Amino acid sequence: MASDNEQKLDELSRKLGVQEEELKRAIDRAELAENKLKGIEEELQMVGDNMKQLEQSAEKAVEREEKLKDKILNIQVKFKTAEGRFEYGEM
Known about the structure:
Elements (H helix, E strand, L loop, with lengths): L1 H89 L1
């Protein structure tokens, strides 16, 4: 009976040791995953910041393009006016 209990105790102790090792490995994997997650979150934050900067740059580029189109249109109007005056002056 005592040896039977000792065998059960030994078996349970062995199982406990195995479970503790599995727990330790699981904790290590969880910590590794958390570190990877933090890195990905930081990278995602940087990507978000870069996207905001790109959106702002794109908005500024569109505004600049509109201003330049207006300027080109005004120059074309002035050119046509000057061309008309030149032709009228030659006649």
